[in-house]
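Obj.: predict assembly geometry.
Materials: sequence records (below).
Method: joint structure prediction, all chains together.
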Amino acid sequence: MVHCDVNICVGCKTCEVTCSSFHFGAVSPALSRIRVAKLEEIGIDMAVACLSCLEKSCLVCPTDALSVGEKGEIILDAELCNACELCIDACRVGAVGFYDGLPLFCDLCEGAILCVSTCPRGALSYREGEEISLEAFQQSEGGASQRRALYADVQAEPVREGWQNGVRVDS
Amino acid sequence: MSIYQGNCLRVDLTGHEVGRGKTPDNGIGARTWNSVTLLRELEPGIDPLGPDNILCIGVGPLVGSKMIATCRFIASAKSPLTGYLGDSGARGFFAAEMRWSGHDQIVFTGASDRWVYLFIDNDRVEIRDASHLVGMDITQTTVALHDELRDPDLQVAAIGPAGENLVRYSIISCNLARAAGRTGMGAVMGSKKLKAIVIHGDRPVKPADPERFEKACAQFHSDLVGHKDFEPRRRYGTTMIMDRLAEMGVLPAFHYRSTQFENLDKVNGIALRRDHIVKEKSCYNCNVHCSRYNYTHYGEGEGPEYEALAAYTVKCGNSDLELAVGVSNAVNRLGIDCITTGEVIAWLMECRHEGVISDADIDGIDLSWGSRDALLRLPELIARREGIGDLLAQGTKRAAETFGPEAQKLTAEVKGLELFSADPRGIKGYALMNAINSRGGDHYRGEPMIELTGDEDRAMRRVGYREAAHRLEETGKGALVNYAEHLGILSDSMTICKNISNCMDLVDFDLAAEAYSGLLGREITHREMWDACSHVSQVERDFNLREGLHTEEDTLPARFLDQPIPDGPSQGTTIDIDRLVSDYYKEKGWDR
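Observations (raw structure tokens):
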């Protein structure tokens, strides 16, 4: 899974540019499998991609178009997908995109994991085999962007607490 | 032949009707289209705050592509502050979203009879009720729209209470604190009862010649990260220049009465980062990340950049840095231009210092240098137009007319637009840029940064004069400013960050032509790009002449012409602005 350190991310969206360029040769966040949640009123930025969660909530697929790959990534069989978008609604952190009739899952760039290598701040890292529980986000409602923002908000709590206690950028 | 003609959304706010068309065909993006639209369509002599004004929002064709730092939109209209061409750009994330929505330019005409916001979701465009947003500041407005539309990824450009109340130097901001700050475009938006523009866009930007485009992007990226100012800008943003200006002796301390500030190390970019900055922030698809997020007892927010920082510290004689950061946050939320607001406060303090006005003239507010009372209360009064704020909302030129000739002698504005935070006497190219550019007293129109470098080879290559590399030289400054002006128009049209393109001198007409050629898949020459910018320079001059501009207005305030710099490394320097302006006219081929 691709992990974003919320302490480091500055919200430039280079990861979105890299992801959409690699997969489509074009740029738009709608084409990206990683999306940056920007909580501007509290100064927080955080990129969110598939976290290879233990729950694998997206596997609600009624046509069995989704399976789990060797590295925990979700593999889509486009032939089987009926574009019902249930997987998008099921993802607890809003990490499944949708473009041109198909859901978009982080495929680790066929092993290249370019968002990690091109992040200008080193905020992104690849954590092989790590799976986290998203049990706490079971009740997440709202659209994908709201779920990404909620996840980022929770991750940001210790960061904000630090600021309140006097932590500054060079501390 | 047209280089790039984009899609134009026409919004008639009187009839609440939306139409579609094309941008003007003789431009290369945002500012070129906006200025041509205003020259073609705006009736001369109209009230800038009436329904006849036209507000154009434009983005360039590279926005939303892989090319870094192409993150700006340009808002243009007749300025309520100057009465001439008004325009201003904002960075952040709004511009890219607008490009992905399939719109290159939005042209607002007429005025609504009730408060509305414009909602754009790709092809879907709706004029919606905004009565519930009235009175909200820019942060509140943005958060309210994200909440009610249940999508925090929506991009919002909004005005605050100042824009609603037609303060003549109101801003339009996206991402809470990314402002189209100068010349009062927020007041024009307010006069149309347009509270916000909300955009979602999905349409990919795809280069027609990917190989050529990628090559131009890669070259630009490598030049940027290898630039000597890359690291300082990442750490301090534009606040790094405060110490440089102090070393040159051009800080505007105590409203241009001195170039020295005793407590500089308490208020400079280093102190700001150490004491109040909690993280760095970025615009869309940039890797400099020169913005910073502050956290103070007065609240939190993005910034301040150099202009706000200098305005509320050295210019006002204030050594309380945290107070200055708090004022910057408040001014951003209220929606007023930080440069003009700083000028208003500092000018009042100087007027009081000189005995031209008393505290009693300003609602009893303490106007001593560095007054906390003035710094905290005046922005609120201005934005709400309460008490003395009603007069100060008109800008320093109009307000000074009320206070009389002695107050007028102390203002620092050109054509009604207040100057930046540097003393023009010690930086001749900047002085000339302030005197002649098409939006009035302003440095950012095109930064003649080469004169601060001493790099004679670069000056020779760019403008043909080795002397132009030195700030106190007058020779070659007409050519330098003409070049910087062209580069400014190019940047405002591509639409790329001027801190990178102009201040770091990292974009030229060759790179721009390569990027356009790669994006569009046909040969665009640097000469064509230059000519498009020359054309728009003339368009803007014609617009201003039509609105009654006289050549006598291409000058600086008398205080900078007849008094030398009093102290510091530039002590004794005066400026021969007539010679500089004549030199510039010669470059342009203008007789007036």
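Conclusions so far: DSSP finds four helices and eight strands in chain A.
To do: check interface contacts against the pulldown list.
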